[in-house]
Write a structure and sequence with these properties.
Length: 598
């Protein structure tokens, strides 16, 4: 009965809307944005969450979305999606979910909402529409959070530039754009590396270094238009994408501008820096690489060539560069892999080249041996130290590689001298870069003691140019090692800047005359005089003089006549592996006959 009564009452007073009203009252406080529209799209109800301002809340009733846009000051196209969704919800008579982005131009604010539309029907057949519910939640802060995360993933936080990750994605985009335009619009990549940046970090600290990087970023931006992109893709590496250059002249003008701007002096926290420069390698797509890996490899090659041209300059990539540069790059990569995986023992070997001394009785004996590093890379094959040592220096891997060398030599020493009457000294090549490490001498001495070797059995070979390195650490390390009793030899004497006059200032035990002079001995008297004067000078100063690269008996006799008593070269022996050198050590008599029989 109650039910029936109720039913008749509802019918009399437009019962459906009354019940909807009741429902609306009920849901007023639900923590959701709620609006209800009649079938013509007019607002019948809004809650406080949907419109906070009570005046607007009142005004909007009976009006359409156009008023909502005006009253809420949102941009007119913000509700386009909502309108489409409304139509779809009506057509398909179903619940729809979507996200909505409302832009408020006056406040320059964008808000994001999760929306649900639900049509409400008055009958069970679903053809008598009462209206449409709109529910929503503000998800702006979540979206902003996601955007921030995305920003952080794609940007370098120090400079605010896009990062390496972004660069990768942008490259894909640029490539597909160029492809879509039938390759008619090439783009250029300027791969830019700061030349002396490490010095700043090392001498002034990272804080100043960071400030310099920021300044550099703004200087680069000054050289570019809005159409160009700049990325920081490494510590001191930047990539610039130029998509709007008509020809290489325009690209060159930009590269020159960047080089000029970056090489102008910096004033950072009172530090005046005038030695910072940059080198740039340039490639264009599709000409210089059909995919991004090739393109960037070639950009790297071009950059390397710019560096080799003397830094502070740019270089376009050309196919001619690839052969030698690819080899160098592969060597670099493989060297890094070797050091990272610590596979020294598998691919490195130390060979020994005897240093021969002529005794007063006219016999030749082995005084020492020079340790020479050998690298056999499984993919490349044997690599010449003349090629890989400079790369090890350039990549700063020389200290770790050098450490492996001296340890190996120390451990070889003990096995060499085990039943040897006159143990030879072993001479180890050092690059000064190794000596830039603070307290290196302590490490070397400790290692020597571990192997129980007297320091006089070890000679350090440092090239003439390197020995003049003014670096404080270098001097300290070398002096401490000499003080401890190590021998010091000046290597490649004659090719560098140290003239004979310097010789007395250097606390060396030995001087090795560079092989280029020995090679030229037979060609002119000029070289004979020069070599003779080095020998005499050395003798006067009480230093051992070693002639390197002795290949011919004529030269040996000539050197002998000048008073030289120590020799090294193919005439006596090639550098030998440990086993062969051991055998050689015990064949001194054979050596004597060999020399006299030549
Ligand atoms: P270097 O110190 O001047 O070594 C002498 C080079 O001359 C060696 O070349 C040796 O094989 C070569 N040689 C010896 N006798 C003759 C000869 O009669 N004629 C000719 N034409 N050459 C001869 P290698 O082994 O190719 O080494 C090249 C350079 O690599 C070395 O020149 C040295 O500067 C560097 N190096 C080698 N091992 C090491 C190392 O362990 N550490 C460092 N820092 N440098 C190394
Ligand atoms: Ca040497
Ligand atoms: Ca040498």
């Amino acid at each position: 009965m109650f039910h029936r009564n109720n039913h008749t009452e509802d019918k009399k007073d437009t019962p459906d809307y009354i019940s909807i009203k009741k429902v609306l009252d009920l849901i007023q406080d639900i923590p959701l944005e709620i609006a209800f529209f009649d079938p013509s799209g007019r607002y019948k109800f809004v809650n406080e969450r949907y419109i906070a301002d009570p005046i607007i809340r009142r005004k909007i009733i009976g009006r359409k979305e156009k008023s909502y846009i005006e009253l809420m000051e949102i941009s007119s196209d913000s509700l386009k999606k909502r309108e489409e969704m409304f139509q779809q919800a009506l057509r398909e008579k179903k619940v729809l979910h979507f996200t909505e982005k409302l832009y408020i131009p006056k406040q320059k604010k964008t808000l994001f909402y999760k929306r649900t539309l639900k049509p409400l029907f008055l009958n069970e057949k679903d053809d008598l529409l009462a209206g449409i519910f709109l529910f929503g939640t503000d998800i702006s802060s979540t979206i902003r959070g996601q955007k921030e995360v995305k920003y952080m993933a794609y940007h370098d936080l120090l400079t605010g530039l896009k990062n390496r990750y972004a660069f990768n994605e942008y490259l894909d985009l640029f490539i597909s754009d160029t492809e879509a335009a039938d390759k008619s619009s090439p783009f250029y990549i300027l791969y830019c590396d700061l030349d002396n940046f490490r010095v700043i970090n090392e001498s002034l600290g990272h804080e100043i270094g960071d400030k310099v990087l920021k300044e550099i970023s703004s200087r680069i931006k000054l050289c570019l238009t809005n159409m160009d992109h700049v990325f920081r893709i490494g510590g001191n590496e930047f990539a610039i994408a130029l998509r709007n250059c008509a020809n290489t002249d325009e690209v060159q003008a930009i590269a020159e501008k960047i080089i000029y701007y970056l090489s102008s002096s910096y004033n950072i926290d009172g530090n005046h820096l005038s030695y910072l420069t940059c080198s740039i390698g340039i490639v264009s797509y599709p000409l210089d690489g059909e995919d991004k890996q090739k393109l960037m490899k070639n950009a790297n090659i071009a950059l390397y060539n710019a560096k080799r041209k003397g830094e502070n300059t740019f270089q376009y990539f050309s196919q001619k560069m690839t052969d030698s540069a690819h080899r160098i790059l592969t060597i670099k990569e493989n060297m890094h892999a070797l050091v990272d995986n610590k596979t020294y023992d598998d691919h490195f070997e130390v060979h020994y080249q005897p240093i021969i001394e002529k005794a007063s009785d006219g016999t030749y004996r082995i005084a020492g041996a020079e340790a020479l590093l050998r690298w056999y890379d499984p993919k490349i094959g044997a690599i010449d130290p003349g090629q890989f040592i400079p790369i090890a220096e350039e990549t700063n891997l020389i200290p770790v590689i050098g450490e492996w060398v001296y340890r190996k030599v120390f451990s070889d020493f003990n096995s060499l001298v085990s039943n040897c009457k006159n143990p030879p000294y072993l001479s180890i090549n050092f690059s000064t870069k190794q000596f830039r490490v603070k307290n290196l001498y302590k490490k070397i001495i400790k290692e020597l003691e571990r192997f129980n070797i007297e320091p006089r059995h070890i000679q350090l070979e440092i090239t003439e140019t390197n020995i003049l390195d003014e670096h404080y650490q270098v001097k300290e390390n070398i002096e401490a090692l000499i003080q401890h009793g190590f021998r010091l030899a000046i290597d490649d004497f004659g090719v560098g800047y140290a003239s004979l006059a310097y010789l007395h200032k250097i606390p060396a035990h030995a001087v090795k005359i560079d092989k280029s002079f020995i090679k030229l001995l037979g060609t002119s008297e000029k070289y004979q005089k020069l070599v003779k004067s080095i020998i005499m000078m050395g003798e006067n100063l009480g230093k051992d003089i070693i002639a390197e690269g002795v290949e011919r008996t004529e030269d040996l006799y000539l050197l002998d006549s000048f008073g030289c008593t120590k020799f090294q070269g193919y005439l006596f022996s090639q550098p030998l592996n440990l086993q062969d050198f051991k055998a050689y050590l015990h064949e001194e008599n054979l050596l004597t006959t060999l020399i006299y029989s030549v």
